[in-house]
Specification:
The chain has 356 residues and is mostly helical. The chain has one domain. Helix content is 67%, strand content 1%. It is built from 14 helices and 2 strands. The protein has a two-stranded antiparallel ribbon. The longest helix has 31 residues.
Length: 356
Amino acid sequence: MLYLIAQELDFPGILNLIRYISFRAGAATATALLIGLLLGPWFISYLRVRQGKGQPIRADGPQTHLAKRGTPTMGGLLILISVSVSTLLWMDLSNPYVWACLLVTAGFGLIGFLDDYDKIRKSHHAGIPGKVRLALEFVIAGVATWIMIEVGHSNLHLPFIKEPVLDLGYFYIIFGAFVIVAFGNAVNLTDGLDGLATMPVVIACLAFLLITYLVGNFRFAEYLGIPHLRGVGDLTVLLLAIVGASLAFLWFNAPPAAVFMGDTGSLALGGALGAVAVATHHEFVLAVIGGLFVVEALSVVVQVAVYKRTGKRVFLMAPIHHHFEHKGWSEPTIVIRFWIISFVLALAGLSTLKLR
């Protein structure tokens, strides 16, 4: 919004700073962080009053989680409010890429909200039916992918290869939707310990911050042999807004957590990262940078598949962070070690930009 106002005035004086993506991205971080920190205490108190018993805790889970009973959920709403206000304030409102990614963020957040609401209403860890949830997610992700290929292209790119390997045409909508939905649910599965999902999301956003900037700049993209897409650079505003909002949430989510983000936040954050990866055509790089989320999701898939076939479990409990809890690792140990793994994977993913 401020960009269009400054543009109408021809960027006079200090408003010329708004012309630069780097300034608007930094301002989006500060805005989202400030909104989250100021709104957080009141918002958490409101959730605590409205929810009563808070998020339902599974009785068959780690026994240490029983102490978290009464902690309110839906804290992801705080992230969504901070991200939405900050992004709309500092983005270029004429940029279709940002609107497509905001559609996924808000749409997945709404689905997560309905799921969290159903859990609280029923006082049970099962929310809305999985098939219904997935169908809604695929519709939103499909529309967003369609918007992005209409203003960009439908070429499939692979790490370490400079040229596009295949033009998928409108089949790219199916591929892009799958990436977005898969990553949204992978982050959702990872969100099982205080701070476990939040910081890896921040790390992944910072990694993709560099990718979006490079993809949006013709000279850098040509030099590195990566796809150039005009307008994608503005996604740095969204990514840094997510970073600011996530850090503000982490302030209240640090152990012992005063609030959980719930499906409202985890689905929205995962969907946003998936959408940015599709927009930049770095879907396979996302699998490296967000490798922690991929492993968490695969641990569930493997556990269910093997158990249905043999009746035996591969892990003591899935997702895999619960396996380590049952092995005797403390919650802070798991969280910090997983953060370290996320940082290393982010560096590995960024290395693919040069190795082409």
